[in-house]
Amino acid sequence: MLGSDAVLALDQKGSLIHTVSREHHPKVGLETEAAIVHAQGEGHEHIDPELIPTEEEKKTLRKVAGKLPSVTYLICAVEFAERASYYGCNGLFNNFVNRPLPVGGDGYGAPPRGTQQTAGALGLGTVKATATSQSFSLLAYALPLFFGWLADTKTGRFKIICWGVAVCGLAHVLMCASGAPSLLASGGAKAPFFLSVYTLSIGAAMFKPNIAPTLLDQMPHAVPVKKTLPSGEVVIVDPESTTERVMLWFYLLVNVGGFMGVPTAYTEKYIGWWLSFLLPLLLYVPLPFLLWFMRKRLILYPPGGSDLVNVCRVVGICFKRGGLRKIFTRKGGFFEAAKPSVIAQSGNVIDVPWNDAFIEDVKRTFEAAGIFCFFPIQNINDNGLGSSASALSTMLATDGAPNDVMNNFNSLSIIVVAPILNYGLYPLLRKRNIHYGPIARMTTGFFLSTCGGAAYTLLNYYAYKTGPCGKYGSSETCVDANGVSLVSNISVWLMAVPYAIGGISELFVNVPAYGIAYSRAPANMRGLVSALNLFTQAIAYLVGLACAGVIKDPYLTWDFGAPTIIGFIMMCAFYWIYRDIDKEEYKLSVNDEQMHVADQPIHDGQSASEKAGPPSYEGEKGGLKDKDREL
């Protein structure tokens, strides 16, 4: 049911697109749709009082996840295809840049069979290989700040997703060209390879900050409601549990896509670069057709302008009104000074285009940003500082396995454990009314990542101790008279342990982070806040770039050990600072830009609703003008 401020030709083909009152409900297939009645002209939902659980019922009734709309699985499939093409290439960069063409190889980049050599191409060394892989990842996770903001304010999320797919497609074609034997032999592969690397990072930056919010836009309900099961049991359909379930599926398919690194690593070692780069391209080809199929089946929000300016103004008012000292107190209150009700009580006349609820949104957004600040150290402990994990793998006995295949145990552990959490642990906890909140889950994840960092440290210590070159086991000079690498007798397969632990930790950290980024942001800043979540990974890569000069022998043990120690300390600090968030009830912001207005006038004398004007619709192909569509 739509409010009076939104009109839609439901009998026409086309996407369901909300404007002005951004309702959070798909048009069909809801378990709770009969309970939802929207107030005329408002962007909030009102639930039949009989279906609202009481505080006592919230404590006693079992919570269950809601039914997922079928389109959510299609979005997860889109993410799978994009991530498969991304990770299928990303894992190859280090060997392509670091190692030269193998001695005695066939010219395609693969080493002779039966040797301990690894594939190579450019032979630029460890430092430049680290700089390449880290700068690629840095751009892929920093540029989303711009593209998330652009989607919120100008283009809408779906259009940016489509643009990103087109840019990534061009990058894959260029990367395939760089694997040509003639270019590898002459050194001419550098230009197409580096151009393709950074083009791919831009395309990924367009895609990544917008796909998760688009997925969560499809969720069927935003508040807890009671439901009677066929068995007669009364349960609470919990939006937090629904979000957790869909994002676990999302993250699982991300990592199924990550397994594309396995065939590309083997083809790199046994066939050559041309096939390693071609496989991701072939998997990428269906993606545009899948997006085309989905475009009329999605709930899409048109861009409504970002609240970033208002957020900055809120912070400025809080500082001016003596809020600085409240930042460091546990009781908080820093943002109270910007609430219109507080301003009115103070006797000051300040015209502000928001209401008290918007200030609560801003407060929750800054809490989310603070939570994300702890993620870089977790990312470093998961995967090693810079390319230190890759350097460690070159010191260990491969016994015919590509050294680049080990990091796929990160994805394997996620694929195995995610269904256990989704259908085993989390339902069991809900059945026993044990609230395992996002902060508790993240703390668990930080602990696991610290354990993974400790495992890396021990492996590197013993690789140095048992290797023929001591603390210079990953150096280019650690070769025999024929140029063949000398390695420790420790198997490279032991690296599966820290990689797997790191993968499990991501399920407890990254999956709740999607929900926090979405639920704690104002409605038209969700792309930007999701990008802030991704940006923390860019910070981890930036640290890797800054430390590139010391990610080499003989410092590798401390490259793993120092982040492990820091990670344990930050885990303790994180839980102490944010533990109270687990006591809060999960809720979404329903305060879009039209609902931010209290009764205060705007400077030009118009109210915000008057200034915005009514939405524009036409009754053709979905009932909206082309300029209002996200396609």
Question: What is the distance, rounded to the nearest whole angstrom, between the alpha carbons of the first and last residues?
Answer: 24 Å
Tell me, rounded to a whole number, the average pLDDT. Answer: 80
Shape: globular
- In CATH terms, what is the architecture of the largest domain? Up-down Bundle
Helix-residue proportion: 40-55%
Name the CATH superfamily classification of the largest domain: MFS general substrate transporter like domains
Strands of the widest sheet, in order across it, are 4-6-5
GO cellular component, one term: plasma membrane
Family: Belongs to the major facilitator superfamily. Proton-dependent oligopeptide transporter (POT/PTR) (TC 2.A.17) family.
Membrane topology: Multi-pass membrane protein
InterPro entries: MFS_trans_sf, POT_fam
